[in-house]
Amino acid sequence: MKTFILGLLICIPPGHLQAQHDEPDLNMIKKIRQEGFNHSQVMDLAFFLTEASGPRLNNSPGFRRAADFTKNKLSEWGLSNARLEPFGEWGKGWELKRCYVAMSAPYYKPVIAFPKSWTAGTNGLQTAGVVLLSIGDASDLEAYKGKLNGKVILLRRIDSLEPAYEADARRYSNEELKEMAKWKNVEAGELNKTANTGLQGKGYTSAHDHNEKPKRPGGLSYTQLKQFAREEGALAILSTNPRGRDGTVFVQGGGAWAGSAAENFPDLVLAYEDYMMLQRMAQRRIPVTLEIDVKTQFHTDDLQGYNVIAEIKGADPKLKQELVIIGAHLDSWHASVGATDNAAGCAVMLEAMRILKTLNVQPRRTIRIALWGGEEQGLLGSKNYVRQHFTDTATQRYNAAGDKVSVYFNLDNGTGKIRGIYLQENAAVQPVFAKWLQPFTDLGASTITLQRTGGTDHLSFDAIGLPGFQFIQDDIEYDSRTHHSNMDSYDHLQPGDLKQAAVIIASFVYHAAQRNEKIPRK
Amino acid sequence: MKTFILGLLICIPPGHLQAQHDEPDLNMIKKIRQEGFNHSQVMDLAFFLTEASGPRLNNSPGFRRAADFTKNKLSEWGLSNARLEPFGEWGKGWELKRCYVAMSAPYYKPVIAFPKSWTAGTNGLQTAGVVLLSIGDASDLEAYKGKLNGKVILLRRIDSLEPAYEADARRYSNEELKEMAKWKNVEAGELNKTANTGLQGKGYTSAHDHNEKPKRPGGLSYTQLKQFAREEGALAILSTNPRGRDGTVFVQGGGAWAGSAAENFPDLVLAYEDYMMLQRMAQRRIPVTLEIDVKTQFHTDDLQGYNVIAEIKGADPKLKQELVIIGAHLDSWHASVGATDNAAGCAVMLEAMRILKTLNVQPRRTIRIALWGGEEQGLLGSKNYVRQHFTDTATQRYNAAGDKVSVYFNLDNGTGKIRGIYLQENAAVQPVFAKWLQPFTDLGASTITLQRTGGTDHLSFDAIGLPGFQFIQDDIEYDSRTHHSNMDSYDHLQPGDLKQAAVIIASFVYHAAQRNEKIPRK
């Protein structure tokens, strides 16, 4: 019996014992809501991060403008140690300086196109014929030897556009949220298995797929193909994907960005409808002339990568060495201004800090904001930051400094409001977050799921055993339109959603900073 | 009692008496279905009308290529008298020869833009600042005097983009079709009232709105504004509309096209997201530089407008002078290749003729196909054709030649399959079409509604008292994406739907040609 009771006590996660102390501070929440809803600056912040700065491809001038703006804004608000902190050698900056593509014969038609990042230009306006390649494996390239000089290359596609019977924008239904909340912890030993509920939405592309080298059927890689195209004197290679449609184009990277990397072959993504038109013309043997003028610029003056860091210093002598960290990534892809990926998250995190600072909160723990660089190339800013500051190299778990980190909160699933939080299978934190979320039920945020979610910077903390969390957000048009596309623009931001997220995060951060204990580890 | 019975007989429309003779020829329908579904050429025809020809703005080179293709194809199939028939002086052809717009400072961003048709170019690549005009009435222009030289003009907008919670594509539900079928005839004297069921979909733009001169608040017309812009030496005026989003831009005409008309001021429609970015930059007083290079070409070698006409001659000596006419409009707007508006209708009507010719049908009446020019400028091709051939000038009703027209069938509501037919309040024809539709219930076409529908060429026949009908078609993406936009492209065509439509129309045409009587008039 005693043994049984002892066993029971051992099984109860520490969070349960703490939960009675986690009653939310309703007076503070009232103030946060008033500031966050009635005096919001989140859309101003979003404007300066997006349209005023430009595309924020890592290490590009747009990224630097946004980083400088952010650092200055944080200083202006009175945060401590606002700085651009290098996270190690990263690579070349790159920006688009000109992009014009059109079909000029047999008649004129503008083409919507974007070069992949870190690709070379065309050395001015070129006119070129089109060659449609139909390739199984490397041996099929032989047939095209001597035929590609000065040409633009297409690869034959066999897909087609289906009518869009599903809406581009959606919010989670109550039923979906209930399903998420029911999700049970996986067995011990399966902790690395990612939850797959299908609720993340179709077509979700993780941050890690940018550099994939898709194998052609038969094993020819895209890199081999581009090598062949270069050797043959081709002008550029074009591609597309039916995920982008109606003028929306999804575009990522076109190869290596390291300081020592060779320039990547010109490689453009076209609107699906334009690409397929060129393919059909080629299949019908109707001669086509393209006009193509792409100018790109590489920046090699500073190959370091940077995160933007600032703090509200803790006021409790016993706890001020401990950290509550909030973050989002500052870098973006380049075909638009990265509004939902992830100026939205940055603006919300900045706004949360502004709210707390405006309310003159004196937190017990130090609250740190970290806006990461290099997320789109593999969470590089946060990974390196966590490695440099918090990781025991031998064990790859958190070190003594890392032990001072109570929790990390991340926001990076678009513009959608917060519907709850993913626990990353950390059951012990469930009763804590349940109490903290309760005051926001009226704002639609009430779901706590044990599910893991992936694809962004909380994983860097989670990887060394620190509590790192991403909120559940409504998808809105993230998967269908904005995520890594030319439509990731300011007009696709939802002001009401961003205000809600800033209010909830300011409250979570405040409560994490005031809590007697750190957030329990898994 | 007798009187009552007599009254009853008088009240029964002639169609009811005929209905017993309108049993469909199931053997012929079987052949039509086999040819239309198993040997369809409808997508080949659509390709040649769209991507092989180019945009088919009336009297443009693209229109002429499509007209020539069509005429030759009809001749090749063995139809009689395939010809381009002039319908009177129409005006200038116009085509786009170059369109490049980008923001080049404070950073580079390509802009999706199209000039309105019949507008002038920019005389090469220009760089220009942007001026945002906020204008109530003409007196407000004073404030901008001397400030617009070499500038690009924006007009302040106060709308915003809402998330797209409704799908772009849709088909009629059974409930909607049932509602349409229930629709009752309006009172006598209200026959000109257009049915407004809301089922046509939001945002439907009639063929007649191209030339509207929207009044600015306070009464300043767009024409006055352009006049002021020209006098002040402005480079161009830009506009947008939130109906176009995600890279889709809806673009129509930018002024007069008459042979004697002056050149219209450069006038471009931008993607909503791009336009609003420029507006926000201007509102924040962030200096912006635009690169803009628009080249347009006017064609004045032949100011006549043309319809394409051909026939399968009737074989019944008594009836061969009578006509069953099918049509669709060949012209389009210019920002894409007019695939759903209305290459779809043309390809279906051509395919219907091909099916009948392939089956070596010997119709009793003559079957005529008419592909109209100038529809987008006000049904001009069909109106003039009907006026020249079938109209009594004094009464504005059909004349003796018009009396030989049994019926006109039109298809011009996009790529969607046929779900039934609008009777244009001609109750007498209901039992006839009910019999003719019955064999196509399995293809989703079974709804007959007394409703009128507008916006296209059957109105030209209806206007003089001849039976002219447009089929009920699923909307698919017509209102949301394709109708008068840069996305009216081949990939948005639905092959299965076009095959279905061709089969049903071939059958309707056949039965109309074989029927003992002409289709009853209203």
State the gist of this model.
2 copies of one chain form a homodimer. The first copy, chain A, is of the alpha/beta class.
Question: Can you give keywords for this protein?
Answer:
homodimer, 522 residues, alpha/beta, Aminopeptidase, Glucose Oxidase, domain 1, 2 domains, eight-stranded mixed beta sheet, elongated, disordered N terminus, hydrolase (chains A, B)
Indicate the topology.
The structure is a homodimer of 522-residue chains.
Chain A: H1 2-11, H2 14-18, H3 26-38, H4 42-49, H5 61-76, E1 80-89, E2 93-105, E3 109-110, E4 113-115, E5 126-133, E6 152-155, H6 174-182, H7 222-231, E7 236-239, E8 267-270, H8 272-283, E9 289-299, E10 304-312, E11 323-329, H9 339-358, E12 366-372, H10 380-390, E13 391-392, E14 397-398, E15 405-410, E16 418-422, H11 430-437, E17 447-449, H12 458-462, E18 468-473, H13 478-482, H14 495-514
Parallel strand pairs in A: 5-6, 6-7, 7-8, 11-12, 11-15, 15-18, 16-17
Antiparallel strand pairs in A: 1-10, 2-3, 2-9, 4-8, 5-9, 10-12, 13-14, 16-18
Helix pairs in contact in A: 3-14, 4-9, 9-14
Structural notes for this entry:
Two copies of one chain form a homodimer. With 522 residues, chain A is of the alpha/beta class. Chain A folds into two domains: 30-90 and 303-514, Zn peptidases (Aminopeptidase), CATH 3.40.630; 95-163 and 204-297, Glucose Oxidase, domain 1. Chain A has 14 helices and 18 strands. In chain A, the strands form three sheets. Chain A has an eight-stranded mixed beta sheet. Chain A has an eight-stranded mixed beta sheet with strand order 3-2-9-5-6-7-8-4, sandwiched between helices. Chain A has a two-stranded antiparallel ribbon with strand order 13-14. In chain A, strand 13 (391-392) and strand 14 (397-398) form a beta hairpin. Chain A is elongated. Mean pLDDT of chain A is 91; it is low at 1-17 and 187-216. Chains A, B: Residues 307-508 form the Peptidase M28 domain. Chains A, B: One of its GO terms (cellular component) is lysosome. Chains A, B: One of its GO terms (biological process) is proteolysis.
